[in-house]
């Protein structure tokens, strides 16, 4: 097994797979990640479920909580809003949204992740098993969309997903998504001092791939620079309203894979993009 240099997802390479950097397209990435999340959902929920909470909305390992951040807008304005959560995992964020009076739908590629959602609330939050690249909803179905490390770090065609999200949002709708901060790709994914020295090029967009003995991808992450992400947001039809880089708070002493208080005090670990679909001009057709 090669060194786990590129993975930003915070857990180790499967014993029987090898880590490399190579191209991986939409279909291969999606198939690999569905399998990986199905196999690893149980461990993920055991490892991170307490930190995530059953009904909290946490944007990333720093612990930035939507109740304080209000990136989707004022908490009191969420009531009655139709909200799509993409890459929802066990739907913790959706459950918090429902508690505020919103009408969330939690979408994920992984059947096993969604089974954890069912385990937690017995099916109170509507769940949809689908790929973020082909959202099974009519145009203009939602007021808001959100994604806490769901889908965007894992997909080859980021613009395609953004266009899909724009399509299902109503004019004036907001999409907020968090991803691994792009600067992290230049560093080893290690929580200790070894994670503080640049080990690769920030500009190398070659996907991080774990593959089996036959060379089939079993896990894929896609890297984009900050500039790439901004261009993707614009190409997807959104206006970038804010880019939030949460600072590591003093209260959080918990490591999450390569995210740690040590590194979090020195370099950003998460980037949160706040995007809006402009309201259509009066009388406009909507696209
Ligand atoms: C790091 S987890 C985040 C889950 C949840 N937001 C949380 O904070 O625990 C990433 C999630 O994205 C999902 N995912 C990965 N690729 C996806 C895709 N193409 N479409 C939809 N979901 C995807 C995975 O199945 C996984 O549940």
TrEMBL record:
CDD domains: AdoMet_MTases. It holds the Pfam family Methyltransf_11. This is Methyltransferase domain-containing protein. Residues 1-34 are annotated as: Disordered. Keywords: Methyltransferase, Transferase. It comes from Streptomyces kunmingensis. Signal peptide: none annotated. InterPro entries: Methyltransf_11, Methyltransf_Superfamily, SAM-dependent_MTases_sf. It comes from the Bacteria. One of its GO terms (biological process) is methylation. Residues 84-177 form the Methyltransferase type domain. One of its GO terms (molecular function) is methyltransferase activity.
């Amino acid at each position: 097994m090669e060194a786990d240099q590129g993975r930003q997802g915070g857990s180790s390479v499967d014993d029987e797979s090898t880590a490399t950097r190579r191209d991986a397209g939409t279909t291969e990435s999606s198939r690999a990640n569905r399998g990986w999340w199905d196999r690893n959902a149980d461990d993920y929920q055991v490892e991170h479920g307490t930190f995530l909470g059953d009904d909290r909305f946490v944007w990333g390992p720093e612990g930035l909580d939507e109740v304080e951040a209000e990136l989707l807008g004022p908490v009191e304005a969420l009531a009655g809003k139709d909200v799509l959560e993409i890459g929802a995992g066990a739907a913790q964020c959706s459950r918090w949204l429902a508690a505020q009076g919103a009408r969330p739908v939690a979408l994920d590629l992984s059947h096993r992740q969604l089974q954890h959602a069912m385990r937690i609330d017995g099916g109170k939050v509507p769940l949809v098993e689908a790929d973020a690249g082909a959202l099974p909803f009519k145009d203009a179905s939602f007021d808001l969309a959100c994604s806490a490390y769901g889908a965007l770090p894992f997909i080859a065609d980021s613009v395609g997903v953004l266009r899909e999200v724009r399509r299902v949002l109503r004019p004036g709708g907001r999409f907020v998504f968090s991803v691994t901060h792009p600067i992290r790709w230049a560093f080893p994914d290690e929580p200790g001092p070894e994670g503080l020295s640049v080990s690769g090029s920030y500009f190398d967009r070659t996907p991080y791939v774990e593959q089996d003995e036959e060379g089939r991808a079993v896990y894929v992450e896609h890297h984009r620079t900050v500039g790439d992400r901004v261009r993707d947001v614009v190409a997807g039809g959104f206006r970038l309203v804010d880019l939030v880089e949460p600072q590591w708070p003093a209260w959080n002493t918990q490591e999450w894979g390569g995210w740690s208080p040590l590194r979090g005090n020195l370099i950003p670990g998460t980037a949160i993009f706040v995007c809006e679909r402009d309201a259509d001009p009066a009388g406009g057709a909507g696209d």
